[in-house]
Amino acid sequence: MHFTRLRLLGFKSFVDPTELTIAPGLTGVIGPNGCGKSNLLEALRWVMGETRASVMRGDGMEDVIFAGSGKRPARNHAEVTLTLDNRDRTAPAGFNEADTLEVVRRITRDAGSAYRANGKEARARDVQMLFADASTGAQSPSLVRQGQISELINAKPRARRRVLEEAAGISGLYQRRHEAELK
Ligand code: ATP
Ligand code: MG
C-alpha cells in the first residue's frame, strides 16, 4: 500500500480544490515561507486520524477550516482525501476490497469530523488503526514535526518506546491489547 494522491478542499490556506500527486520515491515540497508546505503535511496527518488540535497548530480542530482572508470569506467545512494504491492488497480487512483505497475526512463547523473509506462511512478508530498497522499513522515517526527531535531526546522512556513501537508497525496491536484489557 502506498500513497498516490492527496486532495484538499477548504483545509487551512488551501481554500480552492488542490490536488497533489505523490509519485513513488522521495517527494520534496518547496516554496516560500508561509506558502503552505507545513499545512500539506498536516493535511496528511489529519486525514489519517490526528485528534490533537495542537499538532495541527490550532486551538480547536475547527481551526483547520479555511478561516477567510482579505478577499475570501471563511468556509464552513474542510475536506481532505488520501488515495492509496492497494494493488498489493495489504490493506487490513474492511479496507481491502479494491485496488485503490480512498480515505476522506471532512469537518464541518459545530458538527465535528466524519470519515469515509471507498465511499462508505468509516469510524475514526478504524481509520487510525488502518494507518497505525501500515506504520504511517497520524502519530507516526515518519512525519517529523518541527521541534520533534528535541522532544524525543528529552522524552521519558515510556513515550520514547511508543515512538519505537510505531516505527516497528506494532502500535495497532498495542492499542488492541489495551482495549482488550479494558473489556
Ligand atoms: P514556512 O516555510 O515558514 O515553514 P510553510 O510553507 O510551512 O512556511 P505553512 O505554515 O504551511 O507555511 O502555512 C502558513 C499559512 O497558512 C499562513 O499564511 C496562515 O495564515 C495560513 N493558514 C493556516 N491556517 C489557516 C486557516 N485556517 N485559514 C486560512 N489560512 C490559514
Ligand atoms: Mg513550515
Automatic annotation (TrEMBL):
It comes from the Bacteria. ATP binds at P32, N33, G34, C35, G36, K37, S38, N39. It is found in: Cytoplasm. Belongs to the SMC family. Homodimer. Required for chromosome condensation and partitioning. Contains large globular domains required for ATP hydrolysis at each terminus and a third globular domain forming a flexible hinge near the middle of the molecule. These domains are separated by coiled-coil structures. This is Chromosome partition protein Smc. The gene is smc.
